[in-house]
Amino acid sequence: MSGYLKVLSRDGTWETHYAVVDDTKMQYWEKKEDKTAGVAPVKELDLQCATLREIGEPCTWSVQPDKASTSYFQAESEQKKDEWINALRHYNSSATLAPKVRLNDFEKIFVLGKGSYGKVYMVRKKDTGKAYAMKEMSAEKMKQAEIKTPFKERLILQEIDHPFIVHLHYSFQEDGYLYMVLDLLGGGELFTYIENHAPLPEETGKYYAAEVATALGYLHSRNIIYRDLKPENVVFDQAGHACLTDFGLAKSNVHEANAVTYCGTNEYLAPELLKGVPHGKAVDWWSLGLMMCEMIFNELPFYDDNPVQMQTRILTEEVHFPKLKTPVSEPTKDLIRRLLDKDPNRRMQTLEEFKQHPCFAGLDFDLLLQRKVPPPITPDSDPARNFAPEFTGEPILPTQTPSQAAVTLAGYTYDEDSKEYEQAQGALAKEAAKTAAAKKSTSGGGSSSSNFMSNSTKGSSMHPPVTGNSKRSSLGSASNSSSTSGAVKQTSASTQGRKSEGASALKAPSLAVRKSLVGGGTTRNSGT
Fold first, then answer.
1. Whether the Cβ atoms of residue 351 and residue 212 lie closer than 8 Å to each other
2. Which of 127, 161, 183, 228 is catalytic?
3. Which residue of 120, 149, 289, 341 lies most exposed, with the fewest beta carbons within 10 A?
4. Is 228 designated active site?
């Protein structure tokens, strides 16, 4: 069989090629004349033991040869797609057609959380019995709100693999909903643990700071900045290891300090973000310093009920440590001071520098990465006990199918079993093209992250707009974002504290009102 097909390129765009399936191979050229002229094909796929997959996008499928990268193809109609797949199977009877992942492949066990755009469930995959966290989001609501963060999350998560970062297994669409299937991190949030047990022992705080630092260093090595590090987004797995979740505000392709979108969480905003100047990887290390303060001292050094006053303190005040019954060592205080240097150029901002600090003289980071250093915290063995009972006790109801034609958002489907990853398609590819064009047309190379976000602010104002309250809010995207893990952030009906305006649609375990972190009876609500 032969004819023209669209082929997904490495940059996420569809390119038209002339393809031929013959015997045990599939080849394609830029145009039919190239084949006739004897030009070498752009690519040749060995169909022996190849796996074919329907991707879940209209008229689209993939071919994964044995021990080779996956190629993605798109026909002009479903009928043509079926003809190509039949031809591929005809010319190689050993080729298998793997079914695409569907909602019916999973059994919903209990609700972990819910928000404005859907729910998060603990689920079990029926064929393997393995447990996951599944985020279920309304495509219609996200389209109406022009929310693009699920695409950003998917594109970043599918490309990374680290022992202390939540892992994406599948994403797909069905009956007007977007689904993300991720690791079930059943141990609960670091935020919850801090609320119940802080101040934590110094060694415990250092241990989890080290695990998070290795995750940040990994992301930065891949030119990704996280931009929303806080205890709510650090979740324990069942063994007690800390994992980063919720990549709704993360930004990829950052090679230098050139991102300009004002986003993050008020208490955790770095000085350069408040000044409106371009920022880079140093913002994540600032947030790590603050998180160490929360863990070890149960205090944020610059916190104030008044958001504008808090921003002033972030910009002008030095770090002061409260006295504890058990004194904290000087090396640990020095590490925090270096992470909280107001000048991003002087601030500690590399993993190697972090690892070499005297604070970690006795820690083997190689063993830590191998998860061979025992965690200091052991979560409850029953994941349901680590989440709010108002959600885990909620009955599982059938997903409500939209009354109108289901909305389909191109480019969302992902299946880790294919071993290769789909790239941005449709609208997302167009967005990427706009971003590339914008970068070429600007001398400063500024970020265009605001194209993906609502409520974001650019500029050079010393005091950008604030939320007007002391809730811990992630600024820069849609409201009620969710953690991308088992410890999904839940929104309680009774408490709304630390509401995320960050990524996708669902937010964190509801908690009682959080006690003051900065003396004097001040309260901050917990929850999102």
1. no
2. 228
3. 341
4. yes
